[in-house]
Specification:
The complex is a heterotrimer.
Chain A: E1 6-15, E2 18-28, E3 33-37, H1 44-52, E4 57-64, E5 67-68, H2 74-80, E6 82-85, H3 97-102, H4 114-120, H5 122-126, H6 137-149, E7 155-159, H7 167-182, E8 186-190, H8 194-200, E9 203-208, E10 211-217, H9 225-232
Parallel strand pairs in A: 3-8, 3-9, 6-7, 7-8
Antiparallel strand pairs in A: 1-2, 1-4, 4-5, 9-10
Chain B: H1 3-20, H2 23-46, H3 54-69, H4 75-97, H5 102-122, H6 150-173, H7 175-185, H8 187-192, H9 197-223, H10 233-246, H11 253-268, H12 274-289, H13 293-310
Helix pairs in contact in B: 2-6, 2-9, 2-10, 2-11, 3-4, 3-5, 3-9, 4-5, 4-9, 6-7, 6-9, 7-9, 10-11, 10-12, 10-13
Chain C: H1 9-40, H2 47-65, H3 69-90, H4 100-122, E1 136-138, E2 143-145, H5 146-168, H6 170-180, H7 182-187, H8 192-214, H9 226-239, H10 244-264, H11 272-283
Antiparallel strand pairs in C: 1-2
Classes of the chains: A alpha/beta, B mainly alpha, C mainly alpha.
Chain lengths: 234, 311, 293
């Protein structure tokens, strides 16, 4: 790959005393949709958090658009153009839907407009005056994804967007993520649901014990299916 | 050096002290040491931060003084009365305060103590702003102990202090104390093990209040007056400071802290408002840098040292 | 003239007005305490001292520099708010990772220092501050001094503006969100540490503003905030800190209750708020508008 948008090398991360990431290396090209796969506790979520700068301590390199971010605080990283959607969704209960949607400040020009987000997720428009946490799980997930599209960030970090959702919603979220890719977003996706990931991603990195141990491109998934099952323990 | 040896050393110092230092000063220090130990029982072993302990200390002083001066009770009975009055106040305020936790608990106890302050300011038997003056040092135990003599009174005070200190030591090391510590560490787990956490907390609160009341009564007997100062929020803050300086959750910390703060006040009394400023500075310094207090820090160093020398 | 249960209406309404004014101060102070606690997790014991600093700032501006009340109303909160910036940056910032109690103790220590220094410099006795709007109007049932009426209205406006700013504006949404989950808000690109500093300064400024408003009514003295902050703690326990409007209503309501008590049974007026606190703890421990945090 010529010039990756995001290049992570030798990333180590700690929570208090416990050392979680032991030198994570991978890269994501501009416009790519890449997943991090792995078992529970392998370090996928921590990798996203370490990129965002919200772990206890981290070392290594995180280059984004040629800028080194490993020493920066999370607000600087967000302003560099990386947007983060956490696993627990992080919808604010003291804010209504629209306030949740409008919360992340615009960091770069060219974000998705509010009208487009409401077109993408019509449910949110209907319920825009409701308290954020009164939405259903699927709607909360849509809100969590929707609100980071506005900011103009070019790279989205999505942590398990399908977790705990009904199949029809999972399908809808898959469509949305595909649409985002065609709009030019670069997506780094953490997934447990391999069947979901396989339908949308360009490449998959396998994370095990705090390291990236393998990479499979979409075209090879069929051929590598046994190996993948082995990694993921399914 | 074990806790026991430190105890004997301190006891030896306490026994000879009145020949070296001014007995009234030493007695004051002992009263505050008992007060600080009572406070420490609650914060150090039940994890409950009371910011209103002056209400027990001060109210007991008034009750005890009134019983001696107006009702003519012998001092030992009056002190018991003061302590029990404080304990009764502890039942009421404790039952309400333990309904909230953490910082709210501190605010609620503080608010209650302010209520007691206003009560004492206006109640007829306290003498208002002047305080209750001229409490006679009637002989104790039916005339056996002529406590008008400072030296005699000193040893009586020391004995009562040791009684209170020993009671706290026993409480901490009893099964009850172990449950308290378990609740402090993890209340939910203790509850799931079948302990009624609220009841344990309330009992600890009442015990602490009663012992604080004993300390307040003792002070009224020693000083021969009971004053509004002892019921103020500033006094509640002072006992917190004593425990903090010495080391919260250590056996001897509050004693050391009380002696240091009382000594400091003794020397700085002439400088007026600077006493408070210095106390404020100590608060800030301890919170920022020495959260374990003097005894806590020494114990840590000692443990590290003896662990190192054993290797 | 009519009489209500044997109480002359002049006394009744006079005390109610006083109660409203005290309630205004309770509301403004508990509002600041609640906002600060929400974001910083610190119960700001220094709040009473900062209220006093507001009054002193106004008094010093007038007596030393000749700056009138109306300018002090703006300047004093800014000056005191700036000292709040220093306190947050230099001290509070170091203890956010500790138990809430340490913040309580640290700010208690600060209050002792500030009040001690003011006492040393200006003594404990009060300094008078000239009433900027002398005179009043006889409403028939009571005499209303203009300044007191103005304080009630001004503080209501300030409280409602604060409510609006927090509950209805974008900046307020940042504050509410950061109160819930500061890490995520920061990961959205908002400088949360700066927001924390400004929030503290704002809460402190609000206390100082109450102090300026109080200056012409009370004497300006080093200890004017000492007992007030303790009452405000009780107000905060009664209202619960979850709701901005709740703080405002509780503050004014308790002021009125205190005023009524002063008419009905004066000796109880000092303790009535604490009695209400005990009752609320019995019935609704989380506070009238509280969510358990």
């Amino acid at each position: 790959m010529a010039d990756p948008l995001l290049k992570v090398s030798g990333l180590n991360a700690w929570y208090g005393e416990s050392h979680i990431l032991h030198g994570v290396d991978f890269e994501v090209g501009k416009g790519e949709l890449v997943t991090l796969l792995g078992r529970n506790g392998a370090g996928k979520t921590t990798t996203l958090k370490a990129i965002m700068g919200i772990v206890g301590k981290r070392t290594g390199q995180i280059r984004f658009e040629g800028q080194e971010l490993a020493g920066s605080t999370s607000d600087i990283i967000a302003r560099a153009g990386i947007a983060y959607c956490p696993e627990e969704r992080g919808i604010f209960s003291s804010l209504n839907v629209e306030e949740n949607l409008m919360l992340p400040p615009v960091v770069k020009p060219g974000g998705v407009t509010v009208e487009e987000i409401y077109t993408l997720f019509p449910n949110l428009l209907e319920r825009r005056r409701s308290q954020g946490t009164k939405l259903s799980g699927g709607e909360q997930q849509m809100l969590a994804i929707g609100r980071i599209l506005r900011t103009g960030a070019s790279m989205l970090l999505l942590d398990e967007p399908t977790e705990g959702l009904a199949p029809v919603i999972v399908q809808r979220i898959g469509e949305v993520i595909r649409q985002l890719k065609t709009r030019g977003f670069t997506v780094l996706l953490v997934e447990q649901n391999f069947r979901f990931a396989a339908t949308i991603a360009d490449r998959h990195y396998i994370v095990e014990d705090g390291r990236v141990v393998d990479m499979v491109v979409a075209a090879d998934v069929e051929r590598s299916i046994d190996k993948l099952h082995d990694y993921l323990g399914v | 050096m074990s806790t026991r040896n430190v105890g004997f050393l301190l006891l030896a110092v306490a026994l000879v002290a009145p020949w070296v230092a001014y007995p009234v000063f030493l007695m004051t220090a002992l009263c505050f040491a008992l007060f600080a130990c009572a406070f420490n029982l609650l914060i150090g072993y039940a994890g409950l931060m009371s910011f209103g302990h002056a209400m027990f200390f001060g109210l007991a002083g008034y009750v005890c003084g009134h019983a001696i001066k107006v009702w003519g009770w012998p001092p030992e009975l009056a002190m018991l009365g003061g302590a029990l009055a404080a304990g009764a106040l502890g039942v009421v305020t404790g039952a309400l305060a333990i309904r909230r936790q953490g910082i709210y608990f501190a605010m609620i106890t503080l608010a209650f103590s302010q209520m007691v302050y206003f009560f004492c300011l206006q109640a007829p038997f306290t003498g208002g702003e002047d305080g209750l003056q001229g409490i006679p040092r009637s002989p104790m135990l039916g005339g056996l102990l002529p406590v008008h003599n400072d030296m005699v009174l000193y040893y009586v005070v020391l004995a009562i202090f040791l009684f209170g200190f020993g009671a706290i030591y026993r409480i901490i090391h009893s099964p009850f104390g172990q449950v308290l510590k378990a609740i402090r560490e993890n209340e939910q787990r203790a509850v799931s093990l079948g302990y009624n956490a609220d009841r344990y907390k309330l009992v600890a609160f009442i015990l602490s209040a009663t012992l604080a009341g004993l300390a307040g009564s003792l002070k009224a007997v020693v000083m021969q007056f009971a004053t509004l100062t002892d019921v103020t929020a500033a006094m509640s803050g002072e006992v917190v400071l004593m425990a903090l300086v010495g080391g919260i959750g250590t056996i001897f910390g509050p004693v050391v802290g009380a002696v240091i703060i009382i000594t400091m006040q003794n020397y700085l009394a002439a400088t007026g408002e600077w006493v408070l400023v210095i106390q404020g500075v100590i608060f800030v310094a301890i919170v920022l840098a020495f959260r374990k207090g003097i005894v806590g820090e020494i114990a840590d160093r000692w443990r590290a040292y003896s662990a190192g020398s054993r290797k | 003239m009519f009489e209500l249960i044997g109480i002359p209406p002049q006394a009744l309404f006079g005390q109610l007005l006083l109660g409203l004014i005290n309630g205004a101060f309770y509301a403004m102070l508990s509002l600041g305490l609640a906002v600060i606690f929400g974001l910083l997790n610190v119960i700001n014991f220094t709040h009473g001292a900062q209220y006093m600093m507001g009054a002193f700032a106004a008094w010093l501006l007038l007596t030393v520099l000749g700056i009138p009340f109306w300018a002090a109303l703006v300047l004093a909160p800014i000056i005191v708010g700036f000292t709040g910036v220093l306190i947050e940056r230099l001290l509070l910032r170091r203890i956010y990772h500790l138990d809430h109690l340490y913040g309580f103790l640290l700010t208690f220590g600060l209050a002792l220092i500030i009040e001690g220094v003011f006492r040393w410099k200006w003594g404990s006795s009060g300094q008078p501050y000239d009433n900027p709007i002398p005179g009043g109007v006889n409403l028939g049932f009571m005499f209303l001094p203009y300044y007191r009426g103005w304080v009630v209205i001004a503080s209501l406006v300030i409280c409602l503006a604060t409510w609006y700013a927090i509950e209805r504006t974008r900046l307020g949404a940042y504050l509410r969100a950061a109160t819930e989950n500061p890490t995520l808000v920061r990961a959205f690109g908002i400088n949360v540490p700066r927001m924390i500093t400004l929030t503290y300064a704002f809460g402190v400024g609000l206390a100082a503003l109450a102090g300026v408003l109080a200056a012409p009514i009370q004497q300006v003295s080093a200890l004017m905030g000492t007992n007030l902050v303790l009452v405000v703690f009780a107000v905060v326990v009664i209202g619960g800190m979850g709701s901005i409007m709740g703080s405002i209503l509780t503050g004014f309501g308790l002021g009125l209750i205190e005023g009524l008590t002063k008419v009905a049974y004066p000796p109880a007026s000092n303790i009535v708020i604490f009695v209400v606190m005990a009752l609320v703890l019995l019935v609704k421990p989380a506070g009238l508008f509280g969510r358990t945090k």
